[in-house]
Amino acid sequence: MGNITLYGIKNCDTVKKARRWLDDNAIAYRFHDVRTDGISRAQVEQWLDELGLALVNKRSTSWKALDETTRAGLTSDKAADLVLEQPTLIKRPLLDIGESRHLGFKPADYQHLFNL
Asked: pLDDT (tens digit, 9 = 90+) per residue, 7-58?
């Protein structure tokens, strides 16, 4: 496995759990805070191509704050613009292990990914 990057925001409880799990299992990774470090359109478009609209966390406060028309008319093109405007719309954490990307955190899923 090459470079591993965990995308999220520092104060998200699920991101904290994922970071703790990676640390406890001695897995080297880089943390990228989407709010402070930013994300590019190319990244967001790649994530949407690979993960689809699952990239958008529809349980987030950011999502709930959007108007009904925006939520109802969500497409990949519109999602890219929304995520770039409000990176907190990304389902967190987003784990990039080089050859694939994974959303959310469940210890069992991470154990399987890292063959532990």
From this structure: 999 999 999 999 999 999 999 999 999 999 999 999 999 999 999 999 999 9
- The alpha helices in the chain, defined as continuous H runs, are 13-24, 41-51, 61-64, 68-72, 76-85, 107-113
Domain 5-113 bears CATH identifier 3.60.15.10? no
Q: What is residue 26's predicted lDDT score, i.e. its pLDDT?
A: 96
The domain spans of the chain are 5-113
- What are the structure tokens assigned to 107, written together? 């210890």
Residues 35 and 10: their CA atoms lie apart, in Å, by 9
**Residue 104 falls in the annotated catalytic set:** no
Statement: the pTM of the whole predicted model exceeds 0.85:
yes
Catalytic residue among 6, 12, 80, 83: 12
